[in-house]
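Researcher: Next entry: DNA polymerase III subunit delta' (Lujinxingia litoralis).
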Amino acid sequence: MHHAYLFTGPTGVGKHTTAQSFAASLNCLKRHEEEWIDACGECSACKRIATGQHPDVLEIAPSGNFIKIDQIRAIQKAALSPPFEARFRAVILDQAHAMTEEGSNALLKTLEEPSARTLIFLITDQPNRLLDTIISRCQRLRFGALSEDEVARALPAVLEEPAEEALLRVAAGYGEGSLGRACEVLESGMLEQRAELIADVLAVPADRARQWLETGERYGKGNSELQAQLDVLIVYFRDLMLASRAERSRVINSDLDDLIDQGVARFALPDILRILDALMLSRERLRRHVNPQLLVEGVLDQIRQPSQTL
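Model: Predicted structure:
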């Protein structure tokens, strides 16, 4: 085993789960010292690790926007002492890229002087923000995006409430390779609301500017809801692009055939591509805290007059 691992890849594809499973496999009470087997998931050690209650598995995540120096010092302290009861202590550092410069330098010292009974897992979807010296001291494992089939098959096991088979497939498409993202989409109720949103956008005639403004006022309420609404529109116009290219089998909103047909009849392919660019640019601007109302009005104006240059 290596003393430090760096798990990189998109969010929601199992990096944190794998780190937890690794820690459980090391400390499972049913594993003999000379064996290397999967954790049983049933002993007290496995159950406490799964629920984040094991004293020898330290999980650290950003406090606010950053991982602070005090949190890194907790790692240093843990690495200097033997585990309380387990064979190995595991430290799982989620969103490791959020460390401050001071924290990164402090962690580097711990990585340079590894403890024989402490393993450190760094998890990030932005490895480019880590110090090269930290990366060089870890064994790196890259996690790729999951296929839609893999996500759809895995969803029933992780959802709190059961969902219809058709919605599982749609959610897998919205997840864009992320099981975690697909779960969020289903549990947010966004899929049940997407038909209403798309119908509202298509219902306003292009020459009724006032109605477009009223629609903008209705949807530009807050960042969290607008993020989901932009995601719906991006996937919808991506579906229109595919349908316009006779690739209907790849459409994600496969249960909204009537709305897909309306969109294909209304928008030419060059206009669909321009609208998609506007939507994705707006999603990026929303993350930079641009005024939601202005974003919505800009997006709707682009949909109303798609031939207008961005």
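Model: Note for the record: The radius of gyration is 24 Å.
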